[in-house]
Amino acid sequence: MNTSEFLTIASSIVPDRHALVFEGKRTTFEELQSRVNRLAHGLLSIGVQPGDRIGIVQVNTDAVVETYFAAAKIDAVFVPLNFRARADEMSFMVRDSGLRVLMAGDRYVDMIESISDDLDCVESRIALDEPRDGWLSYSDLIDGSRDDDLWPTTAEDDLAVLLFTSGTTSFPKGVMLSHNSFSSYILSQVTPADPDVAERNILTVPLYHIAGMQAMISAMYGGRTLIIQRQFEPAQWMDLVERERVDRAMMVPTMLKMLMDHEDFRQHDLRSLRVITYGAAPMPLEVIRRAIVEFPGAQFINAFGQTETAATITMLPPDDHVLSGDADEIERKLKRLTSIGKPIDDVEVRIVNEEGEDVAAGEVGEIAARGQRLMKGYWNQESATAETIKGGWLYTGDLGYWDEDGYIFLAGRARDFIKRGGEMISPEEVEQVLNSHPDIEEAAIIGVSDIDWGERVRAVVVARSGHEIDEDDVIEYCRQRLASFKKPESVVVVNELPRNPMGKILKRILKEDHSAPVEV
């Protein structure tokens, strides 16, 4: 089904319930449906056609939610852009997706204007906040339009969202997700809106991330009140949870640890939390064990997935987070806390060797998945799609193994991606920047395990003959050319990089030799 119907259903069942709470503004489901209809009519009035891409660069706000559902209602494609991207990355994503409409918050308008000469595809620019010369006004577009219902005509397998994720090349890849990519999960896992059940869900994960998108759409279908935080900030998060009596939260491990480490953590009443879902990055055992103690009234769920799988494909449920029983049972549960759980009902999961054959329990292989919700492919990248989807199975690039009870444990990543605080970082992208540094002969990027961020980025470099490497200079050089979270946080200088006979850098050896924690 078209995902815009989730809002339509909820607004019919619980019209007077608050759908959104954002910085003091409260919007009921009925009001949200009206605003979405008006925005949809406004987009039609400026020439948006079915299949056109509508991009938005903005932190989490109510406008991002409205834009998603408005795009779905008129059969357009929603493209949330990473607001942390640098100008050249933003230019690439806009041009690659062929955006017809580009919306931007105040803090991003100047960057968009600085690259405007490269954005010939964009026919309409819409300012989400204050009016800007040469830009349409978001509020005027809504206020000047009628609010009668619009009914989409696209099939459930048609493209709904284009999400950019870091790839093995120097620029992101657009992941094509259909309406069914979201609805197949939500209809099987989420209880629809109920007049007698009122839940409050805090949204902190950014909406350019699959976890944020899935949480937002699920909340709408479930008739949950969505408490929106622009960006995660621990003190504000705790204040919102306490004041709004939040029931549900989705977090990356870094956020959870930052909360518990905060000096005011024990000054807030967070007992309303009943469900805490975590994922997007590995969860250190010591962090989740502490969280189970610190949030005694909450059930924990570990949700594992990726953009290409439209979020969750395996889950470690609440029961596996209850550390009770005899010594042997507790030991088993502690081990399971380091797993990603079991496949959920509507997804098939295999672990295969390089020949595509199933491996035995305990044997490491690549995790592959099959189901209705998997991506349609990579936008404009047929070869990359063919490398990832084979025989109807999506090869995730994550390595793992089964235990004797059917739980899956991660064992690394086939493509050496780095996950820092839930953000995916392509080593190749950072290496390209490092290799352009005048003092560096060659470079390799590895991820170093870290309790706060999951992983931190380390550069291992070889100096050019007659040159010396200054760590601070190299880090600043990368910061100026990459999104900040991608820059190396430490630099190790070596005489040479280990390679195999074919000349490929042996990152396994680099990780073994240079795995010491990053000092901060």
Describe this structure in a few short sentences.
With 520 residues, this protein is an alpha/beta fold. 31% of the residues lie in helices and 27% in strands. The protein starts with a helix and ends in a 7-residue tail after the last helix.
Would you give an account of this structure?
By secondary structure, this protein is an alpha/beta fold. The protein folds into 3 domains: 4-231, 3-Layer(aba) Sandwich (Rossmann fold); 307-413, Luciferase, Domain 3 (Luciferase, domain 3), CATH 2.30.38; 418-513, GMP Synthetase, Chain A, domain 3 (2-Layer Sandwich), CATH 3.30.300.30. The protein has 16 helices and 27 strands. The strands form 6 sheets. It has a 9-stranded mixed beta sheet with strand order 2-1-11-10-12-13-14-15-16, sandwiched between helices. Strands 4-3-5-6-7 form a 5-stranded parallel beta sheet. The longest helix has 17 residues, at 29-45. The radius of gyration is 23 Å and the shape is globular. The mean pLDDT is 92.
Distance between the termini: 48 Å
- The SS-based structural class is alpha/beta
Number of helices, counting only DSSP H or I runs of 4 residues or more: 16
Q: Which term fits the overall shape? A: globular
Low-confidence stretches: none
